[in-house]
Recover the amino acids of this structure.
């Protein structure tokens, strides 16, 4: 897998580079788990590329949106 590989989720419009680095429209880069916790779990449309549990990985409590610490 190339470091320069880029995927854009056609549903969430979020860019994933190098396989597991997610560039959010605002804020620091995160992981696929963070993307899933904050965006993809709410997606009801077909085509989201971040719905595979094996790819998403372990979602930690801090991956969820928390206005107190963000
Ligand atoms: Zn998505």
């Amino acid at each position: 897998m190339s470091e320069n590989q880029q995927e854009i989720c056609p549903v969430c419009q979020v860019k994933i580079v190098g396989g597991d680095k997610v560039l959010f429209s605002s804020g620091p880069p995160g992981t696929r788990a963070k993307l899933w916790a904050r965006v993809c779990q709410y997606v009801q449309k077909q085509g989201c590329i971040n719905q595979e549990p094996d790819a998403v990985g372990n979602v930690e409590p801090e991956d969820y949106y928390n206005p107190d610490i963000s």
Notes: The chain has one domain: 6-55. The beta strands are 6-8, 15-17, 21-23. The longest strand covers residues 6-8.
